[in-house]
């Protein structure tokens, strides 16, 4: 049986990333896949990109990774682009948008928001036909997925419907459900098309939020207070409590 840790949405939060990696190490999980949004929002974009490159076997592009490498002229993007530098931005630009493989007889697909559209956002409340788009065939295997894992919405959950399973690993660095870092673990027989035991679990990791806040306060980054408020409350800046 193979165990893989699946992390997402680090968003430049170094204390949260370090806490999650320590938890993964303590569980003796050696393989880590990242579902994107390495940088942006938080103050430590360069550091988190470097650590992800060092520790993650698979890294998928998120919408923030797209914004940072494809768009210019926005104050917050410009600030993070200056921190990241050309080489890191080139790395992020070339990231794939999905990864799929068999595990215990199931075709599992990992993506940031959607395998065919970085901006197709799916919540638990999203209507079923839009949720099913995550399972549509891609150009790689041209088959519907059985299981889809994603990030993007910063809220962890697992759901089963119509013979399919969908799970969201939440956010390491900017959780918007509860104020603890989140990641997932998948366990099964990797690269095996025969049915076998398969597990999805979600893990919550407390981390030093005050340290993360102090890192932000030492900078002049745009939208600093909005970011700090999200860390402290777990409430998205565009949503009322």
UniProtKB/TrEMBL annotation:
GO MF annotation, one: phosphatase activity
Task: Extract the InterPro entries matched here.
Answer: Ap4A_hydrolase, Calcineurin-like_PHP_lpxH, Metallo-depent_PP-like, Pesterase_MJ0912
**Short name of any one Pfam family annotated for the protein:** Metallophos_2
Task: Cite the CDD domains for this sequence.
Answer: MPP_superfamily
Question: In what residue span(s) does the Calcineurin-like phosphoesterase domain sit?
Answer: 3-187
Listed under GO cellular component are:
cytoplasm
Which family is it part of? Belongs to the metallophosphoesterase superfamily. YfcE family.
Please identify the protein, giving its name as recorded. Answer: Predicted phosphodiesterase
């Amino acid at each position: 049986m193979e165990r893989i840790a699946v992390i997402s949405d680090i968003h430049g939060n170094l204390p949260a990333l370090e806490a999650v990696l320590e938890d993964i190490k303590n569980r003796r999980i050696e393989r880590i896949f990242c579902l994107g949004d390495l940088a942006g929002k938080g103050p430590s974009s360069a550091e988190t990109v470097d650590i992800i490159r060092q520790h993650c076997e698979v890294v998928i592009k998120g919408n923030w990774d797209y914004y940072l490498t494809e768009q210019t002229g926005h104050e917050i993007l410009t600030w993070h682009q200056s921190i990241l530098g050309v080489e890191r931005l080139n790395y992020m630009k070339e990231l794939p948008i999905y990864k799929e493989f068999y595990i215990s007889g199931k075709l599992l697909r990992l993506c940031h928001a959607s395998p065919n559209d970085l901006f197709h956002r799916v919540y638990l409340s999203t209507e079923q036909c839009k949720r099913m788009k995550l399972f549509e065939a891609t150009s790689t295997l041209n088959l519907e997925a059985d299981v889809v894992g994603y990030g993007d919405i910063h809220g962890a959950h697992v759901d089963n419907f119509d013979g399919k399973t969908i799970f969201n690993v939440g956010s390491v660095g900017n959780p918007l459900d509860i104020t603890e870092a989140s990641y997932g673990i998948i366990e099964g027989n990797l690269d095996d098309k025969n049915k076998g035991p398969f597990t999805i679990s979600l893990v919550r990791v407390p981390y030093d939020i005050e340290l993360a806040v102090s890192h932000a306060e030492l900078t002049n980054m745009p939208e600093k207070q909005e970011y700090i408020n999200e860390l402290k409350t777990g409430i998205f800046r565009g949503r009322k409590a």
